[in-house]
Amino acid sequence: MDAFSTIVNASATSLYVSLLSIAFNPTAWNIVARNEYRNKTITRIFGGNARYGCYFLAIMIFSFGMLRDHLYQRALSDQPRVPMLSAPYDTLVPIVLFAIGQLFVVTSTLALGITGTFLGDYFGILMDHRVQGFPFNVLRDPMYVGSTMCFIATALWYERPAGLLVTLYVYIVYLIALRFEGPFTDMIYSKRASEKKAS
Fold first, then answer.
1. Which of 128, 171, 179, 164 is closest to 147 using CA atoms?
2. What is the DSSP annotation of 27-88?
3. Residues 15 and 78 sit within 8 Å (Cβ to Cβ)
4. What is the number of other CB atoms lying within 10 angstroms of the CB of residue 112?
């Protein structure tokens, strides 16, 4: 137990707030998006304009993502600092990881567009075809992978081993989210394909 307490301050409230915010984001957006697909709640709020509804959700997702990242940094500041890599790798490794992670996140957004990135398909805004260029020709879920890499990079940059445990938690949360997102999105596009064949 003493060894664990040297790397994790389990009494820090900020740690649990960060963990809650990490779980909240994909959980909430999956619930909201499925409700939108079935009931068009947000679309109705915006007078039947699905695109405006999707933009609103995009702003919410982005804003809560920024809050999540802020809470993660605050949590790290309350955790024990323990050097994990020797110089110059203590700066080079996190910089490279963060840069590659951001590259995956940004290029995913550019490839998918706003509606493709922020659950537009749940609003009925479907893409004409599956994106197959970079970074989707390298990874199936580059946005989630890129985000996870940024969590690792931040933990290494601030030399907080607890951040690596949080990153493992992030990875598990993302895997669970994908179990729900992937099949549901596939169902939406399969349904469109069936409707096209029938017409």
1. 171
2. HHHHHHHHHHHHH-HHHHHTTT-HHHHHHHHHHHHHHHHHHHHHHHHHHHHTSPP---S-TT
3. yes
4. 17
Answer for the pair 117, 147: CB distance below 8 angstroms, yes or no.
no
CA dist 46 and 6 (Å) reads 51
Q: Are 24 and 72 in contact (CB under 8 A)?
A: no
pLDDT tens-digit readout, 15-29: 999 999 999 999 999
Find out whether 149 and 97 touch, Cβ atoms under 8 Å: yes
Stretch 165-173: mean pLDDT: 97
- CA neighbours within 13 Å on the CB side: how many for 189? 14
pTM summary value: 0.92
Identify whether the C-beta of residue 175 lies closer than 8 Å to the C-beta of residue 168: no
Q: How far apart are CA 120 and CA 140, in angstroms?
A: 18
